[in-house]
Amino acid sequence: MRKKFRFSLAYQILAGLILGIIVGAVFYGHPGVEKYLQPLGTIFLNMIKMIVVPIIVSTLVLGVAGTGDLKQLGKIGGKTILYFEAVTTVAILVGLLAANLFHPGSGVDMSSLEKGDIDQYVKTTKEVESEDHGALQTLVNIVPTNIVDSMANTNMLQIIFFTVLFGLGIAAIGDKGKPVLAFFEGVADAMFWVTNLIMKFAPFGVFGLIAVTVSKFGLASLVPLGKLMILVYATMIFFILVVLGGIAKLIGINIFHLLRVLKDELLLAYSTSSSETVLPKIIEKMEKFGSPKDIVSFVIPTGYSFNLDGSTLYQAIAALFIAQMYDIHLSIVHQITLVLVLMVTSKGIAGVPGVSFVVLLATLGSVGIPLEGLAFIAGIDRLLDMARTVVNVVGNSLATIVISKWEHRFNDVKRAAYYETYK
């Protein structure tokens, strides 16, 4: 008997994406598109941002208090950071290899490229460079002076630091902490209900965001930069299927099973260029997929600062693309320098909006690449951001399984049962 077709959220988001592209293309250059449709996207993104902090705090408190062991938590944290560093380094190397093999910037006629406005990024970069983002300063910045301010600015690392200590405190006071734990359990359940409600608006938000993007830049404007776009997308797909797929196979997971379970979230992340939009659902799904609550609630939020696989991969390709555009040869030493600088800066400013572009602006000068070159790819940065957001989401989701397997706490029976619902 054939399964009855169900117009699921993934299909609704896809429909919003396609309609947005059509409307944006038809009304290319018309100011009314941004005026009337941008609010749809803004409302959706604001609703998601509204629930991110309560979900992270409540689930992390429950996870940490459930563990209740500082030594065990430190062990999970150490393994998580070690894994993140290894995978992001591979991502940078894959990006450099792709750019060196295919030379996307060679032979580019710069007169045919339209410059974009990078003033907003330069302003952010100056703010970033006014601070010291060395390893020690990054550690200092993790400790909040005002947790309410950290929550208001969604500073993920500071929120995690405070919440971990708070969760350990609840565990340490025993029975006195049970009412507090019950409160956060109620908050978590309520926020997941709110998340499911907000997700019903996702197709409309996606429609508005995509329509505005296409109406601004048009389809024809993408042609001169097509080579870069094709290489970025092809490398991202290679990274997911080969690198992340290889890691998944090593731990006994089929990467296609994971992608199938996450299809709604990946389509939403791609459409909105925002990992935040899917954070609540990723936490919920990875727990159902077999990872324990304490590992999921620690790894996913931490990954948003330390495991930006797609962003670091893109930064490596974009840096070499600009160097090739200006016919600048980067030696192996220069490329190693670029890898080291990107590894540090991408961690130090992970909470800054437009992080990939900002990191590039802050680090290109370290190997003598003209910053002005970024103006040529500013126009399509949004479209490239869509791809790197998907890789970030897949990378962080897989990380929860890796750490769970590493701790011998992954539930394969639960995973198999949950995957059956997606067949």
From TrEMBL:
Gene3D superfamilies given in the database record: Sodium:dicarboxylate symporter
Entry membrane topology: Multi-pass membrane protein
Annotated localization: Cell membrane
PROSITE patterns: NA_DICARBOXYL_SYMP_2
UniProt keyword Hydrolase present: no
Regions crossing the membrane: 7-28, 48-68, 80-102, 156-173, 230-256, 313-343, 355-380
Pfam families for the chain: SDF
Swiss-Prot/TrEMBL keywords: Cell membrane, Membrane, Symport, Transmembrane, Transmembrane helix, Transport
GO cellular component: plasma membrane
InterPro entries referenced in this protein's UniProt entry, alphabetically: Na-dicarboxylate_symporter, Na-dicarboxylate_symporter_CS, Na:dicarbo_symporter_sf
GO annotation, biological process: dicarboxylic acid transport
Recorded GO MF terms: symporter activity
Protein name, as recorded: Glutamate:protein symporter
